[in-house]
Amino acid sequence: MTAATTGPVTAPVIGYADGRPVWVPETTLDLLDRAAAERPDAVALACGEARLTYAEYAHAVTVLAGRLAARERGRTVAIALRNGLAICVCVFAVQRARLLPATLNPDYTAHELRPMLEDADPALVIAHAEIADRFPGRRVLAVEDDMGFVAELLGQPLPPVALPPVDPDADAVLQFTGGTTGRPKGALLTHRAVAANVAQREARLPTVRGDERIACAMPLFHVFAVAMGLHLAAYAAGTLVILPRYRPDTLIDAIRGWRATRLPAGPTVFNSLLGYDGLTRDAVATLRSCYSGSAPLSVATLERWEALTGVPIYEGYGQSEAGPVLTYAGPDAPAPPGSVGTPLPGTEIRILPTGEIAARGPQIMRGYLGRPDATAEALEGGWLRTGDAGRIDENGVLWIEDRLKDMAIVGGFNVYPREVDEALMAHPQVAEAAALGVPDGYRGEAIRAWVVARGPLDAAELEAWCAERLVKYKRPTCFAFVEALPRTPAGKIDKAALRRTAGEGLAHVA
Description:
Layout: E1 3-5, E2 9-10, E3 16-17, E4 20-21, H1 29-38, E5 43-47, E6 50-53, H2 54-71, E7 76-80, H3 85-96, E8 100-103, H4 110-120, E9 124-128, E10 140-143, H5 146-154, E11 171-177, E12 185-190, H6 191-204, E13 213-216, H7 223-235, E14 239-242, H8 248-258, E15 262-265, H9 267-274, E16 289-292, H10 299-309, E17 313-318, E18 325-328, E19 342-343, E20 348-351, E21 356-360, E22 367-368, H11 372-378, E23 379-380, E24 383-393, E25 398-403, E26 408-410, E27 413-415, H12 417-425, E28 430-440, E29 444-453, H13 459-467, E30 478-481, H14 495-500, E31 506-508
């Protein structure tokens, strides 16, 4: 298909879904308040044998918020927790206390966490006890046991004085995203922006209030899991069924056991399930739809999934700086396989002369924390420059065609090769290094690295070196040791030339 327009393509304002008005909250805290008022005894969160009703959920949030508001004078509270009840309670509690949550990957090494902690300067870190030593010099609230942490909050009375209301235009989220400079940037979004995006999603992908059970195997520190799991469940006053980690058998058991109605997941999960014998049409018969995000979904995967299960997968597009959702296909907004749908209500998408996708809407970030230059570059005249190239067809559907920034998406996680380059270059025996993302049938992309060594060096030593500095999905799966790296006429490392030889001379480590 040829592009019919470069935009902007503007979706209608947030209005109706399934013929009913869409409620637009001012803050995401309104989601929890409304659900607790309407369905106090309904199960809000489930993880393993643990359960939390909406009344208990709201109680735990308010108790923790009261403590934080009384003790923390800092602006930011970092949260480094794995999937469970505690991370859900903590995110809402920090916001209720009028503080700023910064959710961090609990599997990050101390090396990866250091620049984020320097920029966020959190007054407190809430983290699992076993990783408390990754936050030297910081006050840490150590979570020994997920349910024990929540049970202790439930055993305490509510604060004697109601907490002041949250300003919808105050910052609600500090979400770190990587960068081509190798240092993460913290995107700041207001309460109003995040809440608007929840309503925009509802208008495109409507839920059944009081009758949704969302199976969530994605990590809840990730923006896609928050938008399409945590917030979606609260908006619908439904149940968020949390899996501590992804395994195909436990996910299928959860879908069957809870009669799950929605499954948000990345392409890696759908690919994995398609290779699992327990995936049958009967096993997922209660699913009304699946949502794919965080990485491109292949047409082959979509077609195989829908043929086998009969359940539609709706694909969308977004990023941390955009609430995070910009476009989605939906039951009333079908889009061709391989595309990412049309703009959400209230969102404008256009293609810049360079081919770059730009977006504008109520869900766009306020800017990057402490990075005025990066903010000015990303937000040009009120439009967010996404760093992705695409086209808009004659039906207003967006197609992603390329990536303008040096980035790979490994299993749904963004990886910036510059960060990998710098980790490798810190090794005393590495003279030069270059990493890039290459296609991978299971993870979407994988990281490969080319190294010029100063002396004796092997792949096992580099793997051990990277394990101390990089979370697993960022580490190269193989290394090529070369005499020199190819250069462009301008003297820069020619990664296009490396990509052409991506399969040659590699030592595999994973």
